Amino acid sequence: MTSTELPSGEWVERAVERSAAVQRSRLRIAKQVRQMLDAARRLIVAKGEEFTTQELVAEAGVALQTFYRYFASKDELLLAVIGDAMTDACDRWSETAGELPNPLDRLRYYITSTLEGLDPDGSHAATARFIVSTRWQLHRHFPSELAETERPFVALLRAEMNAAVKAGLLNPPDPEWDPWFIAELARSVFHFYAFAAHEDDELDVVKERLWRFCLAALGGATHREKGVVQ
């Protein structure tokens, strides 16, 4: 090995991974990226997507060259914001659903929770409209990356669908593809109501109808138990 060649091998890689300098570098990168994502969310609430890269770095408290170190363009940042929002939502939903008694209840919760952020005003409404309008713009250039941002939600649906099948509660026609189709349906309903005027109680009706449709499509049955639609 010459002096210009890098050493290789499993043990060398382990040593690099354990390096304090490497760990500090990773923590610094994670902190800077988090600052930019959080700053972008604040600007979205205030201005929608109509903020500049200069406004973003000022809000995040980082240098412009730091932004371009991690994102090639504002579009890549917006893609990261959408993915970050989806991951946060799935983490919250998963934690809450852990208290529900069976997979069918958890599945219903996941599907209907997609509409929870559609309050008629406030930060949630701004974020919902941003996600809808920006997603279609990004889809032209980042279709695969956008699909990746939605994978956590599809994984939640698939896990509960499989559990419900094992429990004899569902009989889906295509267990591999059905979670994706359900996620696409829920997203379409979300996109419509993000901009369509609606009363608060209208969403409650929509949630129930969405769940009943999905339940029937997955080979389940609706019934009432103690006055609650399951």
Blueprint (SSEs and pairs):
Elements: H1 10-18, H2 20-47, H3 53-60, H4 64-70, H5 74-97, H6 103-113, H7 123-139, H8 143-149, H9 151-166, H10 178-195, H11 200-217, E1 224-225, E2 228-229
Antiparallel strand pairs: 1-2
What is the compact description of this entry?
It contains 11 helices and 2 strands; from the N terminus they run αααααααααααββ. The chain is mainly α. The model is unreliable at 223-230 (pLDDT under 50).
Structure description:
The protein has 230 residues and is mainly alpha-helical. It has 2 domains: 1-71, no CATH class; 73-229, Tetracycline Repressor, domain 2 (Orthogonal Bundle), CATH 1.10.357. The protein is 71% helix and 2% strand. A two-stranded antiparallel sheet has the order 1-2. A hairpin with a 2-residue loop joins strand 1 (224-225) and strand 2 (228-229). Residues 223-230 have low confidence and may be disordered.
Cα-based radius of gyration, to the nearest Å: 22 Å
Second-tier CATH architecture of the largest domain: Orthogonal Bundle
The third-level CATH topology of the largest domain is Tetracycline Repressor, domain 2
Q: What name goes with the CATH superfamily of the largest domain?
A: Tetracycline Repressor, domain 2
Q: What separation lies between the terminal Cα atoms?
A: 67 Å
User: Which structural class do you get from the secondary structure elements?
Assistant: mainly alpha
Query: Helix count?
Result: 11
Tally of strands: 2
The total domain count is 2
Encode the helix/strand succession as letters. Answer: HHHHHHHHHHHEE
Shape field: globular
Strand order of the largest sheet: 1-2
- How would a crystallographer describe the biggest sheet? 2 strands, antiparallel
Low-confidence stretches: 223-230
